[in-house]
Amino acid sequence: MNVPESVSPFAVTDLARYQAARRSTLVSMAVNVGLTVLQIAVGFFARSQALIADGLHSLSDLLSDFLVLWANRHSAKAADQEHPYGHRRIETAATLLLGVFLVGLGIALMLAAGIRLQDPGNLTRVHYAALVMAVVTLVAKEGLFRYLLAVAKRLRSQMLAANAWHSRSDAASSLVVVVGVAGNLLGLTFLDLLAAAVVGFLIVHMGWRLGYGALQELVDTGLSEEELAKIRATLISTPGVRGLHELRTRRMADQALVDAHILVDPRISVSEGHYIAEQARSRVLAQHNVLDVMVHIDPEDDASAKPSLDLPDRAFLLRYLDERLDGALPRGQKTVLHYLNGKVEAEIYLDRAFCSDPDKVVALQRRVDALLRDDPYFRSIVLRRLNAL
Questions:
Q1: How far is CA 287 from CA 251, 254, 281, 296, in A?
Q2: pTM of the model as a whole
Q3: How far apart (Å, rounded) are the C-alpha atoms in residues 332 and 63?
């Protein structure tokens, strides 16, 4: 596939992902259309409630395929102003809707079968055609499951995987139908209706699993401990990272969003700290199935407390120094402040003109020493000479 240079690799991946998902879903739809028509028609003429229930299950597959196509198309859209993280959670919402729909359908089938089982007049023998159709359905559903699951694993799509396992639940329910119809033909006439009830239960079970998993993602459930350990190891091994705390994650469809606080040398420059953060971020993106990473730079471990949060800002501290030192500081000097462990450590760089008078430097140092004896803000103040750099 030829791609213009202006298109990012991520856009190409999303396009290929969408096309493969669409193709597999169209295959699933074609299979389910055929099975739905045949199962309901044969079930009606063969008087098999189990086969009709399985046909309705196939109809639910068809409806879910339409939902998957719609969600897949919209989730493949690139990020925009209203959706800065993209549209991938449309897949999650679609999975939740599918789960709710399946639970409702399963309960309805169970109730219908239960009511009919209470009437002995409904216990009639089915036609052999129902057994043939049930076997054909079982083979078709199992084959469709294996095909869809292979595509879902290749694309890492939660929604396609959900649709694949839905087909596997259909294969399981078709097996139940085979047993129920065969038992009915052998003289145990109640087994057909019992099989219909079991099919309803299987549908409820699968719907609950899908819906619960989607709901867990929508409430920002994090990654597993195993996945967290791998991401933590990647961040810690980044050169310049001294520690890690407050590692948080949340799922975004088949990927995840990561938020981490890394500990670095508190006296490096802002630009070096930013460089380390970018290195850590790029390593996580390259080595893990992650959509985005937010890395916070910390000069100290503030996981349990933030002791420097209540200290005054730079403008206040510079005015404070000037007042406490009685204006002895030369104007325009460079001052570097380090906010560490609830106190401020300052580095004041004196220009050559000021340092040319040793008496001024000594007098300033005495004032600084006196200030530090009982100062509420400063732990240390170091005077540095620019001509010594």
A1: 17, 15, 10, 19
A2: 0.61
A3: 72
Question: What's phi and psi for 224, nearest 5 deg?
Answer: -70, 165
Separation between Cα atoms, residue 362 and residue 247, nearest integer Å: 48
pLDDT (tens digit per residue) in 239-256: 999 989 888 888 876 678
Residues 200-224: tens digit of each pLDDT: 888 888 788 878 878 877 777 778 8
Instruction: Please give the pLDDT value at position 3.
Output: 38
**CA 191 to centroid of chain Cα atoms:** 44
Per-residue tokens: 98: 């599918």
Domains along the sequence of the chain with CATH:
9-218 (1.20.1510), 225-298 (3.30.70.1350), 314-388 (3.30.300.90)
Q: Tell me which residue has tokens 């300033």.
A: 364
Question: b/e per residue, 28-62, with b = 16+ CB within 10 A?
Answer: bbebbeebbebbbebbeebbbbbbbbbbbbbbbbb
Give the full edge-to-edge strand order of the sheet including 255-263.
243-252, 255-263, 292-298
User: What burial class does residue 18 get, using C-beta atoms within 10 Å of its C-beta: 0-12 exposed, 13-18 middle, 19+ buried?
Assistant: middle
